[in-house]
Amino acid sequence: MIIDIHAHADGNYGSVDSITNMAAKYDLEKIVLCTSPRNIHNQQKPPNLPLKQTPDSIYMMNRMMRMAYNHFLKGDGDGNQFVHEIKNQLPDLVIQFLWVDPLDFGQMNELENSILTYQPKGIKLHQAWNNFKIDGREFKELVDIASSHELPVFIHLYSKREVLKLLRFIKENPNATFIIGHLTGINLFKESGVSLKNIYFDTSSSNRIQGSDILDSINAFGHDHIVFGTDTPYASIDDQIDRIERLKLSDGIKEYIYSLNAKKILSI
Length: 268
Description:
By secondary structure, this protein is α/β, with parallel strands linked by helices. The chain has helices at about 15-25, 60-70, 80-90, 105-110, 110-120, 135-150, 160-170, 185-190, 210-220, 235-245, 250-265, and strands at about 1-10, 30-35, 95-100, 120-125, 155, 180, 200, 225.
């Protein structure tokens, strides 16, 4: 069975019925769900830019996403509450990650209460949506709170500069657990020499990630540091599964990537 560690409450994961159907179709054991951008439920997949398709090409996409998020998307209610309601109806299937903007004073001031209320299994940060900096005090405060509750932080990184900042942060805070979305910055992680004991890498993406990138990551970080995600509905779950299957990995290694690593991170 599969644990999808990266999904948004939109499209095929936007309702109880559609989530149930997806779980049955793809043999999903758990779905880790967070809000869609501004809790909008009818957004289109981001376009594939006419660039060389590599994990690092996400940096250009990030600039476009931030502009759209800040200037063109109108909010549609509380995304964390929406995900919580879905989780309450599907408690054996859906796991909530709490989306947080470290620069939102109200969210940060209520973060401890939100963790108690929503009982998330992790925190989701998205630098393409929110203009926080890894070296800002707000980020350190959030990670400290997450770590005190033994919650992993799933982060979508914005730029190479922010990747380098995160590597410095990891060196100074080795007990914090991070999941790096979309294999972003894997070459910098490989070259860093920083202990990555508590760092995991999510496989989800569109054409930016090839099977060879996942295989390189397995060889560099170990199969016990790679987790399967789909970024549904913004990428095709069929493509994500097919990309893993084409690698011809052993059943044991695939089990770690599809579920065992996620179970360790999520303590389930």
